Amino acid sequence: MKKTALSQAEIKSIIPHREPMLLIDEVEEIIEGSSIKAKFFVDPVREIFKGHFPGEPVLPGVYTVECMAQASDILLLSMERYAGKIPYFIGIDKVKFMKKIEPGDTIEIHSNILNEKADKAIVTCCSKVFNKGELAATGEVTLAMR
């Protein structure tokens, strides 16, 4: 298994997401066909913080889940059989939030392949999101590679 780190330019060559929905800044490590460690800087200038929540901004949980999905997307689209596909979200399970993610934080997303139905190109990944070294969220995302 090959270990690799990826810059944002390399990430953009793998996944179709673009600003403002690109929520992965760098990949620290990807073990082909197995796992990924990625990072996202929660930029305080994001428009979402004007309304979520005024005076007490926090990254919405749906953004955290999207970070899980995008890290998983990079892992899967890096595999030859899924390269160039569009990753469609088809399931979110067992999501739990344990710690707030605030503007200015940099989160680390760890994701690994949990289950793959190769004949249907459907993959479930287990993800953990860390903030300041503490577990902030966990969940499973299921993606259909089309």
TrEMBL record:
Superkingdom, natural source: Bacteria
EC number(s) stated in the UniProt entry for this protein: 4.2.1.59
InterPro entries in alphabetical order: FabA_FabZ, HotDog_dom_sf
Keywords, sorted A to Z: Lyase
SUPFAM superfamilies noted in UniProt: Thioesterase/thiol ester dehydrase-isomerase
Pfam entry (one): FabA
Coiled-coil annotated residue ranges, if any: none
Broad EC category: lyase
A Gene Ontology molecular function term of the record: (3R)-hydroxyacyl-[acyl-carrier-protein] dehydratase activity
Similarity-based family: Belongs to the thioester dehydratase family. FabZ subfamily.
NCBIfam families xrefs: PRK00006.1
UniProt xrefs under PANTHER family: 3-HYDROXYACYL-[ACYL-CARRIER-PROTEIN] DEHYDRATASE
Protein name: 3-hydroxyacyl-ACP dehydratase FabZ
Native source species: Sinanaerobacter chloroacetimidivorans
Gene: fabZ
